[in-house]
Amino acid sequence: MMDLAVIGAGPAGMAAAIAVADAGFSVLVVDEQARAGGQIFRRPSQEWGQRHGNYRPYSWAKDLIERFEDHPGITTAFRSTAFGVLRDPDDHAPLRLALHTPEGGRLVAARRLLIATGAHDMPVAFPGWTLPGVMTAGAVQSLLKSQKLLMGRRLVLAGSHPILLILAEQLLEARADIAEIALARGLPNFAEMIGAVPALPGHVTLFADAFRAMGKIIARGIPVTRRTIIDGVEGTTEVTGVRLAEVDEGWMRTGKPRHVAADLLVLGYGFNPSTELARQAGCRMQWASDLGGWVVAHDQTFQTSVEGIFVAGEPTGIAGAERSWAEGQMAGLGIAASLGVAADPTQRRRAGCILARAGRFSRVIQTMFEPKREALARLSGAEDVIVCRCELIRSGALDAALRKNPFLSTASAVKLECRTGMGPCQGRYCEGTVAARLATTRGATIPESGFFNANFPVKPVPLQSLCDLERSQEEHIPANTPATYPAASR
Amino acid sequence: MTEARRMTATRGPAVTFHFEGQPVTGYCGETLATALLAAQVSAFGLTREGTPRLPFCNMGTCFDCVVTVDGQRLVRACLTEARDGLCVTRHEAT
Questions:
Q1: pTM for the structure as a whole
Q2: How many domains does chain B contain in total?
Q3: Confidence tier at A195 by pLDDT (50, 70, 90)
Q4: Which of A69, A253, A298, A328 could, after both became Cys, cross-link A15 (CB 3.0–4.6 A)?
């Protein structure tokens, strides 16, 4: 049995794993990727000869990754999917985590779990969004950073999140041909910039990077249009063009759409916390639109409403890598304390400082760039627009289901009625649209629509992996023994 | 077709696998998604309406890049490394 199993090897997961392993406990860290770092620090394969990638502007990243990878008390399971938490609410048996690994299914018993599952790009449904040639900013960026693959001949970037500017700069460095960058909002105004000042200490490089990116984009003569939103893409089997439209302050269309020739549309409207495992485990969720929507509720030690299950990083609210790193440290100290080793006060204070500082910064960014969800959901309004990409449920079918069942009032009920969210992605890419459309139709708010329930298994896995769980349960791993190695120097 | 091009970089040794019966060359350390995109494959899979899909999220959450690998269905190409001798076919939804 492990003392702690961490799901996600990003900044939060790595920081927590180090803190708990430093206290002498056994830690297993699971991640779907081949290497540690999370989406933010995706790097090329080890086989390409470089240990590190470019982590700018996060000065602490290299040290964090090295301490994590070199830690003797941390076991890792990469290329592995955590697809469910098994627990018996009535007894104090350890939590069990179901894994699909390259060797098959495996059930891991752990005294504590940390959900550090990160975030994914927020999907937006509009005419043609399922066509080859439409990709998320995260997809284009990770292919560029970790695979050295440049997508598209002529690109349009559309969104509202600052990541689009950073990505645009990286694309220009790779000699991409960017036709236009369409931002749904205006640039931050003077009052907002002043408001951001208290958040600056420690984050000068981040701001500097965004400004530097903007400077380069302008110097290259790339058109950056404001108050402009995606209206649809053209093409039958692939993207041949993009339609952009002017919007007002509320992101509602004011003008007629115009055509831009392009073969790749990159979307960057923000991020959603990845919370399906927390939902499946029964952790209480709460709504915070400026933090990315549904986030996992937790106490000061980062324990969720379920005893023994902790959370850190983006699932507590989208707040960036720095904040995730800080939350990971705090959660790690909390977990160690719950296992019987109290953190030394200096360490605790230091983590607290980073947490507060990172929090100030991210609050400013989030308020500035919060997406207008109802307006985005309207982009899927036309009858033949696909709402659920997996099950091919169209807008017209969704409307018909809502009309036919006037008492349907939750997103989960809509899912049962018309299969939106029933496919392989398990609703990650239609929940936002369904909830916003339901709210608009019923004259309610988005949080009143609730969220899609997540059931075991939270991701599709081969039946064989489920069968393997039974056998794997019999493996006996000795319970925690005191530390057999010196705690890493601090 | 959505163009994809490999940038200059040090990569691992070349590997060859089959996609829909055709040989595809990739490099050790690339994912199946990268190798197939670089080979300008126009569809990783077909929906039950017969429409093509390519990777959308490249981080394992959207399942639009799924393919069949050595008979195993719903394998995410973006999370699977390209290896010699793999037999990869399009995902065909039913």
A1: 0.93
A2: 1
A3: low
A4: A328
Among A36-45, A347-356, A446-455, the least confident range:
A347-356
Count of A-B CB contacts under 8 Å: 136
Strands A386-388 and A309-311: unpaired
Residue B3 in domain: no
Residues of chain B found within 8 Å of residue A130, distances taken between Cβ atoms: 47, 51, 53, 56, 64
ipTM for this model: 0.98
Provide the pLDDT for residue A192: 61
CATH code assigned at B59: 3.10.20.440
Higher pLDDT, A161 or A84: A84
Tell me which chain A residues have a C-beta less than 8 angstroms from the C-beta of B2.
132-133, 151-152, 238-239, 263-264
State whether B3 and A139 contact (CB < 8 Å).
no
Of A264, A423, A424, the CB nearest to B2: A264
Q: Which residues in B lie closer than 8 A to residue A34 (C-beta atoms)?
A: 81
Please indicate, yes or no, if residue B8 is contained in any of the structural domains. Answer: no
The residue among A459, A453, A390, A427 whose CA lies nearest residue A105 is A459
Segments forming the whole domain that contains residue B52: 14-92
Gap between the Cα atoms of A25 and A308, Å rounded = 15
